[in-house]
Amino acid sequence: MNSRHVVRLFFSTLLLGGLSGGAVGFAARWDSFKPLFNSMAVGEILMTFFWLIGVGLIFSVISQMGFFAYLTLHRFGLGFFRSLWNPVQVVFILFILFDLVYFRFITFGKNESVFSYLLVAIILLLVGLIVAYAKSKATNKQAFIPTLFFMTVVTVIEWVPVLRVNDEAWLYFMLVPLLLCNAYQVLILHKINQKSAEELKQKKLQKQPKIKNKLENA
After folding, report:
1. Max alpha carbon distance in the chain (Å)?
2. What count of other Cβ atoms lies within 10 Å of the Cβ of residue 24?
3. Is residue 99 pLDDT above 70, yes or no?
């Protein structure tokens, strides 16, 4: 992947995170922002929206850091575990989903039902399965487990700052932009790699006649 595509991926993901953060922020924290709409405080509404976009941009940067960290981890895992890397990832997926329910419930859910904690893990898993299926259909079957690992394990790691606070509005406010940015990056990566490979091939083909002419004129 050349630098031009890296920059394009960075800014497109940044835009997605910002816009989704602004939209989801109003929806997740509607009770707090509803008085602004009732009073038609246009200036405050715009300021709040831009603030939410700014927070969404931060979520996008966190997502991108997690994505490139996982690409490094994936290379390391393939080199170290070889054929066992996929089973190892499955173990981590199950472990992180169990922890997401169990540790949050014993920490925050003393007088609550476990269902709400279980629902979050189910939503995360379902989104991960959908994205992993789409990735495997677009590339190959071997991409299913790595994509599911990224969409579950890495997303939860990125989500930790809000998980520790356990504010329901903030939980979804951060989760949705993270999932959108993570899904976008992992689904578009192979397309960017293909474009980069095609551009590199074209450059080589363009250079060959020039080199041939130089040799003939030498």
Report:
1. 85
2. 21
3. yes
